[in-house]
């Protein structure tokens, strides 16, 4: 079975969610038309849209929702009949202001814990931990923390996640190179920003996996990610410098 996954998706209040799920299907289809399609949510502490969808609340009108298991839902387009697997997850801001992702888990983990404590907490609640690249955050002492986690065999499973927000031409982070050398997967996701219109980014960057079994539930995907193959195929492209400047500049202006 082939599955293509955007591994870094937010559901922010500013979004038109119907447009987001349409974009996810369209963009993932454009990457790999024959593969099953999935998005890994990484909701911040101030967001819990997966729970309200799970309860059947405010489902976008163009979609039918069905529960797959405790950590995943399926949204089926009423227009195309195409389906999208939506998997729960959280994003945690550490004391050092690094972003740790907890894939395949609904459990809340408080922001502000130390980096290593956060990774341990993700494992304790059954999530799959991943470290999300972010502009300006993987240098110096914080970069060294990530390097140490990559080298620490007791930190497995652990993955890294690239993003469209690392513009084309930006040097490959040394942590990605070291992870690849050690057989640690470097995944990919769009990381849409918290402002209207960014939902159209979802599905433009992701990873393609081949599996002998159907990865059609969140629980199956969690088991797969706990011991994934070291080789995976990235799909899509990161932003060019001008697109990145427009997106990131717009975001910074919105914060003022």
Description:
With 256 residues, the chain is an alpha/beta fold. The protein has one domain: Metal-dependent hydrolases (TIM Barrel), CATH 3.20.20.140. It has 7 helices and 12 strands. It has helices spanning 17-31, 49-54, 115-124, 140-151, 174-181, 218-226, 241-255; strands at 2-9, 36-41, 63-69, 72-77, 83-87, 89-93, 99-103, 128-132, 159-163, 186-189, 205-210, 233-236. A 7-stranded mixed sheet has the order 3-4-5-2-1-11-12. Strands 6-7-8-9-10 form a 5-stranded mixed sheet. Helix 5 links the parallel strand 9 (159-163) and strand 10. Helix 4 runs parallel beside helix 5 (174-181). The chain is globular and about 50 Å long.
In short:
The chain is of the alpha/beta class. Helices cover 29% and strands 26% of the residues. A hairpin with a 5-residue loop joins strand 4 and strand 5.
How would you describe this structure in keywords?
256 residues; alpha/beta; TIM Barrel; 7-stranded mixed beta sheet; 5-stranded mixed beta sheet; 7 helices; 26% strand
What's the layout of helices and strands?
Elements: E1 2-9, H1 17-31, E2 36-41, H2 49-54, E3 63-69, E4 72-77, E5 83-87, E6 89-93, E7 99-103, H3 115-124, E8 128-132, H4 140-151, E9 159-163, H5 174-181, E10 186-189, E11 205-210, H6 218-226, E12 233-236, H7 241-255
Parallel strand pairs: 1-2, 2-5, 8-9, 9-10
Antiparallel strand pairs: 1-11, 3-4, 4-5, 6-7, 7-8, 11-12
Helix pairs in contact: 4-5
